Amino acid sequence: xxxxxxxxxxxxxxxxxxxxxxxxCLWKMILVGAGVICSGGLLLxxxxxxxxxxVKSTCTHTTLKDAHTVLLRTTVCAVTxxxxxxxxxSQVHYFVHHSTRYYWNDVMQNFELYKGLEDVNVSCxxxxxxxxxxxxxxxxxxxxxxxxxxxxxxxxxxSLLKLLVKEVLNPFYIFQLFSIILWSFEDYYYYASAIVxxxxxxxxxxxxxxxxxxxxxxxxxxxxxVVRVSVCRxxxxxxxxxxxxxxPGDVIAIPANGMIMPCDAVLVCGTCxxxxxxxxxxxxxxxxxxxxxxxxxxxxxxxxxxHKKHTLYCGTHIIQTRFYTGELVKAVVVRTGFSTEKGQLxxxxxxxxxxxxxxxxxxxxxxLCLVGVAGIGFIYTIVLSIMNxxxxxxxxxxxxxxxxxxxxxxxxxxxxxxxxxAQRRLKSxxxxxxxxxxxxxxxxxxxxxxxxxxxxxxxxxxxxxIHRAEDGSFCSPxxxxxxxxxxxxxxxxxxATCHSLTKIEGELSGDPLDLKMFSATGWILEEPxxxxxxxxxxxxxxxxxxxxxxxPERINQHIFRIGACEMGIVRQFPFSSALQRMSVVVRxxxxxxxxxxxxxAPEVVASLCRQHTxxxxxxxxxxxxxxxxxxxxxLAHRQLESKLSWHKVQSLSRDVIETNMEFLxxxxxxxxxxxxxxxVLCELQRANIRTLMVTGDNMLTxxxxxxxxxxxxxxxxxxxxxxxxxxxxxxxSITWHYTENQLDEGTWDGEVSQEQSYHFAVSGKAxxxxxxxxxxxxxxxxxxxxxxxxxxxxxxxxxxEVLQSMxxxxxxxxxxxxxCGALKRAHSGISLxxxxxxxxxPFTSSTSNISCVPNLIREGRAALITSFCVFKFMALYSIxxxxxxxxxxxxxxxxxxxxxxxxxxxxIITIAFTMSLxxxxxxxxxxxxxSSLISGQLLCSVLTQILTCLVFQVLxxxxxxxxxxxxxxxxxxxxxxxxxxxxxxxxxVTDPQNHKNIRNYENTxxxxxxxxxxxxxxxxxxxxxxxxQPSYKNCKAKTVLSxxxxxxxxxxxxxxxxxxxxxxxxxxxLVIIMIGNAAASFLLEVRLRNHxxxxxxxx
Length: 1099
What we know:
Blueprint: E1 7-9, E2 17-24, H1 26-38, H2 42-49, H3 51-58, E3 59-62, E4 69-73, E5 77-84, E6 93-97, E7 100-105, E8 110-113, H4 124-129, H5 137-148, H6 160-168, H7 171-185, H8 189-222, E9 228-233, E10 237-242, E11 251-253, E12 259-260, E13 264-269, E14 271-275, H9 277-280, E15 286-288, H10 295-299, E16 311-312, E17 317-322, E18 330-335, H11 341-350, H12 358-387, H13 392-406, H14 411-428, E19 431-433, H15 438-442, E20 447-450, H16 452-456, E21 462-470, E22 473-474, H17 490-497, E23 502-504, E24 507-509, H18 512-521, E25 524-526, H19 530-535, E26 542-545, E27 567-576, E28 581-588, E29 595-600, H20 602-607, H21 618-627, E30 631-639, H22 646-651, H23 654-657, E31 662-670, H24 677-686, E32 690-694, H25 699-708, E33 717-724, E34 733-738, E35 758-763, H26 764-773, H27 775-784, E36 785-789, H28 793-805, E37 810-814, H29 820-825, E38 828-831, E39 843-845, H30 852-889, H31 897-914, H32 936-962, H33 980-985, H34 1001-1021, H35 1035-1049, H36 1051-1054, H37 1064-1091
Parallel strand pairs: 20-32, 20-37, 32-36, 33-35, 35-36, 37-38, 38-39
Antiparallel strand pairs: 1-2, 2-3, 2-4, 4-5, 5-6, 6-7, 7-8, 9-10, 9-11, 11-18, 12-17, 13-16, 13-18, 14-15, 14-17, 19-39, 21-22, 21-31, 23-24, 25-26, 26-27, 27-28, 28-29, 29-30, 30-31, 33-34
C-alpha cells in the first residue's frame, strides 16, 4: 500500500469519507514550534482553524495501517487520532469519528464500520437457529471489550471552560480582540470598552444557549437509557444485567409489562405492541411480530430496514407483549450505542451536516471583496503617512485601523437576527423549527411535494359502502357491514380480524383505518390475560366476536358458515408499505382448520387470488370508484389445510399463506379533502410554485383527488406513464394513455399541442423501471409529472433527490412514518404531526393542514430578503466609514472615539437589528427572491450606492475647504460668531487635547454627511413589498429612526469634544447635500429595480 494513498470509507453511503494516514515528523514539529514562538502564537491559532494544514505541517504521509493520525474529508476536513485496543494481543487499530468507531481490516486494507449483527449477513433462519439461545459470557465479554464497548448513547456535556475556550478562539472574537487592542493604542477607550461589554454579553449568551442545548439533549437521551435487562445465556439460563453491557448477538427477554428499549433488537419469539413516536412522530402504537424463520423469507439476509416490522428500536416504548404459555418474548440484539436508530438520530443532532446554501457561500466571497478593499486602504494609508512623515507607530496603528473599519465585526450577528425573528413569528403561528438556517431555504422553494392521506385529505376515513363478491360476480353495494344478515359472512369476518388493533388500558388502539373498519362491523375484541392464557388453549391470544345481543337464531341459515362466529387471531403478518398488504391466520371456535384473511391494494390482492373468483367487472368497478376519489381496499380469504398446527403456522412465511386466495370484495372508504387544501394549492400555483402529489394510494384515486383539490385543473389532461421491466426476452417498455381513454393505450407519440396543458401520472412500479432502464427520460418525465401513486417510502426519497438534481429547491409536506425519509432529504421538510417537534423534519406544524406551507414560504422569503438587506446595509456601512476615514487621513485627521461609538452603537447596531423586524408580506407573489449575493443587480445596487456616497462625501469635503470662513481649526476658532477678519489675525496652534487632529471642519462635515448616509441607505435597502411588510409598519424601526434623528439633531451638546461649530449657512448647505444624497440614492435604486427583469432584492 502506498504511503500517500487515499482510501474511501463507507462508499456510496451518507457518511462516505476519504481517509489518508499520517505519522508525526520531528523536524516539521520543530519548525512549527519555532514559527509559533516567532509569531507570538498566531501560527498555532491559524493551524487550529485549519486542521488540515496542522496535520500536513507537522506530519508526513504513511500507510493507513501504520497511521498515528488520519485526515478525513467529507464536506469538511476533520482530524482524529488512531488508537490501539488494550484488550487485544494483536492490537486492533481503530479511530473514533463523530462518536463512531472505525476498525482496521487487514483483508480489505482499509478501515470499516462495524454496526452490528447485520455486518455478517446473517439470514433470518439462522437468527432463529444459531442466535436465539444467546451468547456465552466469554463471547459477550470479548465483543464488549474488543469491538462494541458500552451500549450507551453518551452525550457528554462539555465544561463551561472548554466551551469558553472554543467560543473565544472563534475567528470573529479573535478579530474583535485584535480590534480592541488596536483601538486602545489609539486611546479609543470608550469605544473599546463598549465593544468588550458587547462581546462579553454575546459570549455569555452563546455559552448559555449551547450549554442548555447540550443539557437538554443529554437529559432526553439519558432518560431510560440505562436499565436492567434479562439476558438469556443458553436455552434456559437467564441472568440480570445492565443494558450498558449488551452487545450484538445477546438475547434479551422482553417483560410482559413492557420496557424502554435500550438497543435495536429483532423479535424471534412473541409479539410486541410498541409506541415509536420518539422515532417517527406517530403516536399510534404499532404491532411487531417475530421474524420469519422458514421459506423464502427465512432464507433472506436480515436487514433492519426491510424487516422493520419485526425490529424493536432503541428508545421506543414497548407497551405490552403477546406471550404464550411457557415461552418468553425474546429478541436478538442487532445494534448498540450510536449505531442504533436512536443513536444515529442523536448523531445527526450533535454533528449536523453543513447547510449548503448559495447565500452563505456568496457571503464569504463578499467578505473577501471587503478584505480586498481594506488592503487597498491599508496600502494607501502607509503611502500617504510616509509622504507626510508620520511616525512609524502611528502609521502601523492607522493602517491596521482601516482593516477593522472595512470588515464589519457585527455582520454575522446582524444577519442571524432576521432568521431569529422569523423563527419567533413561525412559532407564533404553530410552526416549530429545529434547523433555523433552513428558514432562508424556504424562501427559494419552487416545488412542494404533498402526501395525500392525512395531508391533502382528512386523516380519518369514513366507510362509504362494502361491495361483496360471490361466485365470481359482484353483489349490490351495501352501506352497512354490521347488518345481522352479514354477521357470519367471510367478508365481515375478514373485516373483523384482518387488522393490527390492540387494547391498551381497555381502549382499542391502532391504525385509524383499521379502527374505522373494525368499528363498522360492530364486533368486539378481547385480549385474554396471562392467567386465562395459561388455563385455556394458547392458540388464541386475541379473540374477536360479534355483539352478544345478536342471537344465532336470527342469523339467516342460507349464509355461508364456517363454524361459530367467535374467532382467535393465531398469526399476524403486519401491513407492509412495500408489499401494500397485510394478512392474518385465524381459527374459528370449534373449527378443525384455520383460515387466512388478506386485505390490501385491490391490484395486489387480485394478483394473489384465483382467477375464477375475481369478477369480470373488477377493473371497471375499481375504476368507477377510484375516479370518484374513493379509497378502495380489497379483501380475500383462504381456507388452510387441516393438518396445519399452531406451531407450524408460526414458522410459515407470508408468501406461503398469501397465495391461491378467494376474492371476497371491496371496501369503499371516503377520504374527504380538507377544507384548506384547495385554497392553499391555488395560492401556491399563483406564486409559480409547482405542487406534486406523492402517495401510496391507488393511481386513479390520486388523480381524482388531484383534480378535486385543483392540482390538476378541469381542462387539463392526465397521461399515465406505465412501464414494465424486461421479461421473456422482451425489453423494458413504456406505454402511455390518457385517463379519460381518449387515446388507445400505447398510441400516444409523446407530442401534445402547445395549447393543450397536460400532466404525467406515474406509479411507483413504473417509476422504478424508468429509473433503471430509461434514465434519460427521468428528468423529462418528472418535469411534467404531477401525480406519483403507489410510491414506497424509499421511492418518495428518491423522487426528492431527482428533483434536487434538476436544480429545484424542494419542499416536502407529510404526516406519516412513510414520509420520514423524504422529509429529511428535502430542503424544507414540513411534518404535520401532533408533537411539538418532529425528529424527522426541520419544521413541524401544530395545525394538521397544509396552510402552514404558504406561511413558511412567506416567512422564508422575508428572512431571505432581510438577510440580503442587512448584508447590503452592513457592507455600505463599512464602505461609508472607510471613505470618511480615508478622506480624513488625507488631512491627517480621523473620527473620534465618541463618533465611532455613536455610529456603531446608536446607529448601526440598532438599525441592523430593527430593520430585520419587518414581518412577511401577506401574499405570495409569482416572483421568487434571488438566492445569490453575487448577482448583477445586487452588485449594481451596492456599487451605485457606494459611488453615490463617495460623490457626496467628496463634495462636502471639498466644499468645506472652499468656504470663506475656513481655516485650520484651533481651540480659539469660532466660525459661528466671529468674522473672517478676526480669524485672519489668529495664529494656528495645535491643541494639546487634539493631538490626533479630530476636531476640525472636515471631520464635522463628513461626520454629519456620513451619519445621514447610514440612515439613507438603511431606508433605501429596507423596501418591503412584495416579500416583506413596508418599513412604515415596523413600529420598532420607526421608533429607532426617530430616536436617532433626535440624537442627530442634538448632536452638538452630546459630543462636545468631537465636533466643532460651523456657520448657519454651512449647516443649510449640509442639509441640501443630504437631501440630494437621499434623492439620488432612492432614484438610482428605483431605476435599477425597474431596469432589471429580476425582482429587486429588497423590493
